Give the backbone structure.
Amino acid sequence: MIDASFDAPKRLLQFASFFRGCFTKRSYASFVSYLSGMLLEHRRLSIQSVAAKAPLSVYGRLQYFVSESKWSTDDVNKRRLEYIQGKRALAATADGDLIIDDSACPKPYARHTEAAEVQYAGIAGGTIRCNTFVAAVWANQSHYFPVQIATYRPQQGFPLGKDDPAFRSKIQLAQDLITYAIQQGIPFRDVIFDSWYLGKGFVDFLHDKDLAWISEAKGSNTVRYRHKWTRIDELAKLIPSHKFDRTVVLPTCDGKERTFRIASFDTRLKAVNYKLRCIVAVGKWDERDEDGVHVFLTNRLSVPPDEIVRRYTRRWRIEDVFKELKDFLHFDQYQVRSLKAIEHMWHLALLAHTYLQALRLEVIKLPNCKRPITLGDALALHRTLNDEEALRWIRRNPDLFRLIRITDQLVA
């Protein structure tokens, strides 16, 4: 097959050039080819499918770039954050929050894929063979972006299990990500996380760092209420109904707005020796929410309880990022085995996400933009720009294009 050597859209080339210093001359050419190819339509992403889509790409070079090349994911990510912070529309500001969560890439048949172990995955609702990562996402009211990801390797992958010096739990990885965000100068107001991360070790870490945080609590957590230690799942029955004297309308995880009635009181979490605020909210996140009661804990003692619950709903942003990475950028579709190659592909997906966010915000600023623009809309726009660039190349090179068509038909 003869490659049609038209350029990628100018916006993408300008974006890619910001990262030139992270790569050698040869690996930079592969970087541009891979980034260009992965943004085009694929039934399933693979190095081979990218090579077939990208201009000037050679399969062997892309394979080496992803699997063997020595470029640093840390250098690339730091440069990505510099790009974000240098763009006013993208940059993190002090009104944003840092959201922590983990997700999995199911690999049920990948017995030889590094770090793909049988472990619990929320997206599967049980145990499955998968690669897992912990992520930090920054978000405010108008925009959001992934700050960094960290690969979780289950204890069964280490000679000494959880006692192995190289093992890092998800809690430790979350702590590393928060420290990383601070070191990179990412401003944030609160750290937001779900009930799985709520425990003495993690909140003590945040307390020692003097960081504000908001979390939903598990039913099994125990707090102080009316001078007694009380399980979280018993609070709604014990608090008098007249104490639910505030209401708040919240955006929920199904995209709708729902009304919650809330009550609050100062408390302590068992084994944690400092005052916290407990907010009990009666209402449902969506139609599948069987509980109808959600309890939040925070060390923000002076912030109104309805504002605490409202801030917690920013946690949905990290779910948006996971969905966008997997639905649009094939984050979980890799067909490589080494952890180095997997992490290379993950960080290339983060770069593509940042490029599409920049394109999305550029469209939103246009005076004739009359509706919300999603990341999927930005991806469709990029593909249109790519098609236009391809058509310009065909008009300049009609004879070569006919030769390519004939060659492709003979190969097929």
The first strand starts at residue 97 and ends at 106.
